[in-house]
Design goal:
2 copies of one chain form a homodimer.
Chain A: E1 8-13, H1 42-49, E2 60-64, H2 68-77, E3 83-87, H3 92-107, E4 112-117, E5 121-122, H4 125-140, E6 144-149, E7 160-167, E8 170-180, H5 185-193, E9 197-206, H6 207-217, H7 219-230, E10 233-235, E11 238-240, H8 243-247, H9 254-259, E12 265-270, E13 274-275, H10 280-286, E14 295-297, E15 300-303, E16 309-312, E17 316-320, E18 325-329, E19 333-338, H11 345-354, E20 365-368, E21 371-378, E22 382-389, E23 397-399, E24 403-411, E25 413-418, E26 424-427, E27 431-434, E28 440-443, E29 450-458, E30 467-470
Parallel strand pairs in A: 1-2, 1-4, 2-3, 3-11, 6-12, 14-16, 15-17, 16-18
Antiparallel strand pairs in A: 4-9, 5-13, 6-9, 7-8, 7-9, 8-12, 10-11, 18-19, 20-21, 21-22, 22-29, 23-30, 24-27, 24-29, 25-26, 25-28
C-alpha cells in the first residue's frame, strides 16, 4: 500500500433531494438521510465507510440549510465528528466541489480530498477502501482520480468511462481515454465488451490540485468558491459559506467544469459492488433477498410472490401472489409500481406536486434542530402532535395568535416557561396549558428524550402561526 | 304488477364476517358494514333497496352480539327503522332463516319474508324490485322463491340453478329443475349455453310456509328456532333470541335443510346486475371505472395504469405503471395483489392470524355502543386515543388498575364524573385528569358529537384493564 503525506479528508456531498424514492424520500427529508436498506441511512453508511482513521481524517459534509440538523445528528448517531458546511444556494456540483477543495486547503492544507455522494450504496467497504488506497498514489502525484466500476450489466442509466493506458504498472489504475454519456442499450452492450467502466461520480484529488485545475478551466467558479470560503461564518457549529460570494458561482456540474476538460485525470477500476440507488428497483437490487427474490424492509409480509420489494415505515404492508412489484408504505402515503416502472415514480410525484399535495414534499414527521414533531390527527379546529425533544434541546420562545396548546408529558422531564407563571418542571403524567397569545418555551434539560403529546386547538393551526421571540438555533 | 295481501318484511342476514376483503374487512368490523364501493356499506345499500314503503314493511336484521351496534347505527344513519334480532350463537343459515320466519310470523302474522344477504351488491334497484314483485305472486301462492341471475360470464365461484317450466305464463318465473354446485370452467360454459342461472342465495317466502317446510324437512331446527323466538328477551332495544334454545339448532345451511329438498320452489330470473362481492376483484367489477378501467375509492391516485382497483381509507394511495392490481390501504395495513389473486387474500389473513397479528382481526378504530375510539400512537408506557362519543352516548362507569388518563376536549361538551370530584362539564380546550384507580365516567349530553384526546399512561395499557362498574349498554 502506498499512502500520501497526510490523511484523506472525506467530503460528503449531502445536499441533494430525490423524488424517485418517494414516498420514503421527500424534498423535506430526502433519500440520503433515510434508512432505505437497513437501519442506517446511505449518508451514515458513507460516513462509516470512511471512518477508518488509518486512512481518513474527520469528514466534511456539504449540505444545505434545510438539512444541516439531519447531517449533524445522523453523523453524531454513528459516532462521526463531521464539519458541516452549508451551501447558501444550490449551485450544482462544480461550485460544491470547488468550495470543498478551498475549505479543506484552508483548514487542512496539503490534504487529499475524497469527494463522495451521500446517497450511494457500496456493498464491500474494504474493497472500496482498497480502490481509494490505489487511487491515492495518483492523486498525490497530481491526478484527479475518478472511481469507475466494472459493469455487471449494460445499464443505460449511467455514464461510462473508456480507460486508457495503465499507470504505475497496475491494470486497475489507468489514464482516462474518454468520458461518454448515458448510452442506448446496444451501445451499452458494446461498452461492456470493450471494457468501459461505469462512472460513479466520486473523486479523489489533492485539494490544491483541484483548485489549480478550476483556475485553468473555470476560474470564475474557483474565485466565487474561494471567496465564499474566506468569508464563511460560524453559525452554532455550522460553517456557513458566504451567501453573496457563493451565489455568484455559475450553475454547472463538476464533470463539465473540470473533469472532462483536464488532462490530469486517472480512473480506478472499482471492484466493489455499487449502486447510486436512483430508484426503487435499485434498492431491490442491492437488498438482501429471500429464496424467491423478495426483499422486505420494515414491517412487511410477502406471500406466494417473487422478486418483490416491500419497504414499510410503520405500517403492516402485505403482498400476495405478485411478481416484480415495488410496494412502499409510509404512515401517510403508499406507492405501488412494477419494478420496470421504477423511474415513473418521478412523474407521479410531479403530478402530486401539481395537485398541491403536501405528501409529495413533506413527511408527517417534521425534524427540527431540537428533535421532531409528528402529526397524529387533525380535525377542523384541533390537531394532535407527538413531540420528541432531544436531551439539551430547547424550543424557541414563541407565541401563537390563533391557538392554545395542551401538553401532556409521556416520557422524560420538561422545563416549561409560560408567560405569567414561574418556570417549572413537568414530568411523566403531568400536563400544562398554554393559553392563546401567551409566550412559552419548552426545553429538555434531562438526560433522556422528552416526549409529550400536544393538543392544539384554535381556528387556524398552520405552522406559520409561530412567532419566534428567541431561538438558540437562530431561527427567530 | 301482482301484489300479496300484506307488505313484505325484509330480513337482512348481517351476521357474517369476511377475510377476503382484508384489510378493509376484519372480524371485528366485517365487510357488510364497510363502505366498499361508495359512501354507504352494502348493509346500508341493502336496507335502502328495500325501503320502498309501497312494497316493504320495516326490516328485521339478524346479526350477532358483536355487530349489534353497527347494525342499529348504520340503519339509523340511512333513516331506516330496523328491528335488530341477535343470534346468541353461530348456527349457519338454516337456523337464522327459521328464526327469522318464526319471528316475523309471531310479530306480523301472514307476512311474506324477503331474506337477503347484507353483503351483496345490486346495481339496479328498480329491476331488483321488479323481480321481487314478480316472485311475490308465487310466494303468496305457497312457493319458496329463489332469486336466480342471468349469468354474464361462466363463473366457477357460484352455484347454478336449472330453471324448469314457466309459472303463470311468465318466462321469468319458473319452476326449479335442479340446484347444482359450483362447476368447473368447462361445465360453467355448458351451463351458460343451457340457460342455467346463478344462485344468489336470496329468498322470498311466506313466513308460515317456510315454517311448514322446516317442519317437514328439518323439524329439529324449526323447534329450536321457534322456541328461541318464543323465549326471546328485549335488551336495550335489541331482540335477543333465547341462547339455550337457539344453541340446540343443528349447524347447516338453508339450502341443505330446506331449499334443495322442498318441491314447493320457484325461481325468478333476475335481470339486475348483482355481485356477492366475495373478494376484491368483485369490488373492482362492480365499481365505476375510468377510461383505463381503474376504480378508485377514497384518496387514491392512479397514473399510467389500467384495470387497477385502489381502495384507500385515509391514506394517500398511489399506483404507477401497473396493470390489474388490487391495492387496499388502511391506516394500519396495506394489501397488494394482482386481480387474479384476489382469493389468495384469505390465505394471507390466515398467515397473519397464525402470526398473532392484531391487524388480521382488529381495526385501529374500535366501535363501541357510544361511538368509537381510535388508537393514534403508542409508546412503551403511554398511548394516545381519539375518542368520539355520539350525542346521548355514555361510557361505562369504570376504573383502571394500571393507568391514569388525561382528557382534552377538542369538540363538543363532556359531562365528566371522577371519584372524589363533583360531576362537571368539560368543553373545548378544557382538560381533566383521571388518577390511577379513580372511578370515572364520561358522557355526552349535548347535541353534537363529543371528541376528545385521551392520553393514557401506565405500565400496562391493555383493554382488559377496564373494570366496568355500571354500564347502560349492559356490558358491566
Amino acid at each position: 500500500m502506498s499512502q500520501g503525506s497526510s490523511k484523506i479528508v472525506p467530503v460528503i456531498l449531502a445536499g441533494g433531494s430525490g423524488t424517485r424514492l418517494w414516498p420514503a424520500s421527500r424534498d423535506a427529508f430526502p433519500k440520503q438521510f433515510q434508512p432505505l436498506t437497513g437501519d442506517l441511512s446511505t449518508y451514515q453508511e458513507t460516513l462509516r465507510r470512511v471512518a477508518d482513521p488509518a486512512l481518513f481524517d474527520d469528514p466534511v459534509v456539504i449540505t444545505s440549510d434545510a438539512f444541516r440538523f439531519f447531517a449533524r445528528r445522523q453523523a453524531a448517531d454513528v459516532g462521526v465528528k463531521a464539519t458541516v458546511v452549508l451551501e447558501p444556494a444550490r449551485r450544482d456540483s462544480a461550485a460544491a466541489v470547488a468550495a470543498a477543495a478551498a475549505f479543506v486547503e484552508k483548514t487542512r492544507p496539503g490534504s487529499a480530498v475524497l469527494a463522495l455522494a451521500a446517497d450511494h450504496v457500496v456493498l464491500d467497504d474494504e474493497v472500496f477502501r482498497d480502490a481509494v488506497r490505489l487511487g491515492l498514489t495518483a492523486a498525490e502525484a497530481g491526478k484527479i482520480v475518478v472511481f469507475g466500476l466494472v459493469p455487471t450489466e449494460p445499464k443505460t442509466a449511467y455514464g461510462y468511462i473508456r480507460p486508457g493506458a495503465a499507470l504505475d504498472g497496475d491494470d486497475d489504475l489507468c489514464l482516462v481515454d474518454a468520458f461518454v454519456e448515458k448510452p442506448d442499450a446496444t451501445t451499452a452492450l458494446d461498452y461492456l465488451r470493450q471494457g468501459y467502466l461505469w462512472n460513479s461520480g466520486n473523486f479523489l484529488f489533492k485539494a490544491s490540485h483541484m483548485l489549480a485545475e478550476f483556475g485553468k478551466y473555470a476560474p470564475d467558479i474557483a474565485a466565487a468558491a474561494s471567496e465564499a470560503v474566506d468569508k464563511a461564518s460560524e453559525d452554532i457549529g455550522f460553517v456557513r459559506l458566504d451567501p453573496d460570494a457563493f451565489s455568484t458561482a455559475r450553475k454547472t456540474s463538476i464533470d463539465y467544469a473540470v473533469i472532462e476538460k483536464t488532462d490530469e485525470i486517472a480512473v480506478v477500476k472499482g471492484r466493489f459492488r455499487w449502486s447510486d440507488v436512483g430508484a426503487w428497483d435499485a434498492i431491490w437490487q442491492v437488498s438482501e433477498r429471500d429464496g424467491e427474490g423478495n426483499a422486505v424492509h420494515g414491517d412487511g409480509v410477502v406471500l406466494a410472490s417473487h422478486d418483490c420489494l416491500v419497504h414499510s415505515q410503520g405500517i403492516l404492508t402485505t403482498v400476495v401472489g405478485a411478481e416484480g412489484l415495488l410496494v412502499v408504505a409510509t404512515p401517510d402515503a403508499v406507492m405501488v409500481a412494477p419494478r420496470e416502472q421504477a423511474q415513473a415514480v418521478k412523474g407521479l410525484v410531479d403530478a402530486l406536486k401539481a395537485g398541491g399535495r403536501d405528501e409529495a414534499t413533506l413527511h408527517r414527521r417534521d425534524y427540527r434542530p431540537w428533535g421532531y414533531i409528528e402529526a397524529l390527527v387533525a380535525g377542523p379546529r384541533f390537531a394532535v402532535k407527538h413531540i420528541v425533544v432531544d436531551p439539551g434541546g430547547v424550543l424557541s420562545l414563541q407565541r401563537h395568535q390563533h391557538r392554545a396548546e395542551h401538553w401532556v408529558v409521556v416520557n422524560g422531564t420538561a422545563t416549561i416557561e409560560i408567560e405569567g407563571e414561574a418556570p417549572r418542571l413537568l414530568t411523566i403524567n403531568q400536563s400544562a396549558y398554554v393559553p392563546l397569545g401567551a409566550r412559552h418555551r419548552l426545553s429538555n434539560r434531562g438526560k433522556i428524550p422528552l416526549e409529550l403529546i400536544e393538543v392544539q386547538s384554535g381556528a387556524y393551526l398552520g405552522n406559520d402561526d409561530i412567532e419566534r421571540i428567541e431561538d438558540i438555533y437562530q431561527r427567530a
